[in-house]
Amino acid sequence: MNGWAVLGVIVLVVVLLGGFYLSMTAGRLDHLHRRIDTSRLALEAQLLRRSSVCLELASGQLLDPASSLLLTSAAHQARTSADLGDDEHSRAESDLTAALMAALDADDLAVAASMPSGAEILEELDAAARRVQLSRRFHNDAVRACRQLRRQRMVRLFRLAGHTPWPETWEMDDSVPEGLSAR
Question: Which residue would you say has higher pLDDT here, 170 or 181?
Fold first, then answer.
């Protein structure tokens, strides 16, 4: 074999390996974008579930009237803010968390838990709040992985992300009120 044939084979192997690498990277990027979409839908579902349980708690006469009103208002605002954009929505969800913290002190939890169906609603609220935390964590982990991949030089050079918008993390206060799970 002459020198040109060897060089041709080497170039062909390098091109094939480079194409395989780019194809695998594009597939991984596509998978991460789908994972972000799925995790965002799961997060939205858990946020909706949490606000529903908050409305159920507020309307169940388990809290004092002022706390019920505060919780109802915050839950309603969180539900209606989903169409206003991510910043407004995350702010409303953080406000719902703050309203939960204010409405559910240790005395309120003890009274609500002693009422019929109170313990059940509080358990459901605890589960919903914890699922919001997990869903947000999964979403933000997927966003971080996608951002890390999209920052790679080859991904940017060959524009493997196409016209897909840059993924954003979901930031909000998703604390679980103290004593809710300690009951």
Answer: 170
Tell me the three state secondary structure of residue 10: helix
> How large is the average pLDDT for residues 8-23?
95
* Comparison of pLDDT for 46 and 85, the residue scoring more: 46
Reported as half-sphere exposure (CB side, CA atoms, 13 A), residue 139 has a value of 23
CA–CA separation, 124 and 129 (whole Å): 9
What is the rounded CA–CA span in Å between residue 158 and residue 156?
6
Q: What is the amino acid identity at position 16? A: L
Q: What whole-number distance in Å separates Cα of residue 63 and Cα of residue 52?
A: 16
In 3D space, the residue among 127, 132, 42, 57 whose CA is nearest the CA of residue 94 turns out to be 132
CB–CB of 125/53 below 8 Å?
yes
Q: How does pLDDT run across 81-110, given as a tens digit for each residue?
A: 988 888 999 999 999 999 999 988 777 777
Token output for 84: 């206003």
Helix (H) or strand (E) holding 86: helix 86-103
